[in-house]
Please model this.
Amino acid sequence: MARRRGSIPPRAGSPSSKPDDMTDRIPVRRALLSVSDKTGIVEFARFLAAQGTEILSTGGTAAAIRAAGIPVKDVSDHTGFPEILDGRVKTLVPQVHGGLLGRRDLADHLAQMEKHAIAPIDLVAVNLYPFEATVAKGAAFDDCIENIDIGGPAMIRSAAKNHDAVVVITEPGQIAEVRAELEQGGTTLALRRRLAHAAYARTAAYDAAISAWFAQQNGEPFPQRLAVAGVLRQPLRYGENPHQAAAFYADGTQRPGLATAVQVQGKELSYNNLNDTDAAFECVAEFDRPAIVIVKHANPCGVAEADDLAAAWDLALRCDPVSAFGGIVAANRTLDAAAAERIAAIFTEVVVAPDADEAAKAVFARKKNLRLLLTGALPDPAAPGLLVKSVAGGFLAQTRDAGRVTEQMLRTVTQRAPSAGELADLVFAFRVCKHVKSNAIVYAKDRTTAGIGAGQMNRLESARIAAWKAEAAAQAANLPESLAKGSVVASDAFFPFADGLEAAAAAGVTAVIQPGGSIRDAEVIAAADKAGLAMVFTGMRHFRH
Model:
């Protein structure tokens, strides 16, 4: 049977199917527009009407189109069935879904459509009730429930399934491409397939958000089925290495950081830039006073609190000026010119902060390749969340490490208790330790890191490396003794033997903070007492792999 103009090509997968044929275009004779985000919809409706397309619509979308003087038919008039149940049922009727799902290449389908007075619908533009935004603003349970769209996802899925004949728009940004093809006589199969893929991805993400919300309401951090979804935020040049592909996705939670950041200036961010920037910003959010964190290869190499950011920078840089070159810098306050001048004095890849004043921006503008990211706020270190890591055949999921040690939580286990100054440094060092790869050892004095040992296979080597770095930093600063002299030491997990603590004591520490819990705790406590050290247990460890 010869195909009429406007009929569809053979179904995908048949011998004569030509999915890449850009000449087989389908016009839009009837369109259904029903959107919560009305960006561009009136202009698109005007364009469709000028092409002779019959426009069907619902509620506020119909009112907006009609107010613009564009002919529009209410869906209820088209179907002969009114909206009921406070608008919960508008489009869940055969006249809509039959018009979307009916195959135009099957005579039986066409006969049934004619028998039941079902008119074909060639285009659907639907974006869903703003469930994610409703949850994000902390709406009540019933409001969230009412913002779960039912008819919208059903229409999107119907249109996407029958993409051989129907084009589906789920985002305002897709309108321009559809319009451009309609101006050429109709949509191509290639476009319809791309939009069908986008449609199913959108409904999957929507259902994932609803599922995650229900799990939270029910107190189920690990439900039987865990749905993870994201929106492409930025394609990246490559991953950790040039032969790896990569992209950045936002999960919709709007945790302050990379997903909320505005890049004020600088080159395109790489995968490694983003990974290191996230590590730096999460670390700097731990501190209450003005603080600077310098990160290299996902590990802090210098951290300090001070009365202002410029002073904090000077102290953080002193800890490891060699590693700081080409590093990532995070601040927990609005950047000012004084801090910006100091940071810009060495080669820095990325600077991230909640904000920056105009004077600071002007300083950084002189370094055109430096990336400046402003997030608008700091993340809450104690906020709940889920972390996901892929493994062969699946992924691991765990709650975010929201543990945050305070002085009141600490238990003194040695004969000598720490002084007030030592206590403050111990808490500071342990908060830094949380963000250092295990095995982690951190020396600190006056709320400034003195030496950091990261990622070693045993704790003794981490202690030795941290001490060596403290000695090297002192030499670089022309100081008479190691930065570790008179410092405190933090260990992210217990000392399994006394040797790691003894190495720290040899470096000159005066107090120790560690989780405790080793079968050799008594041996380690005895070593601390012998060295005259104060030691406290946290009862909480911070492994970071």
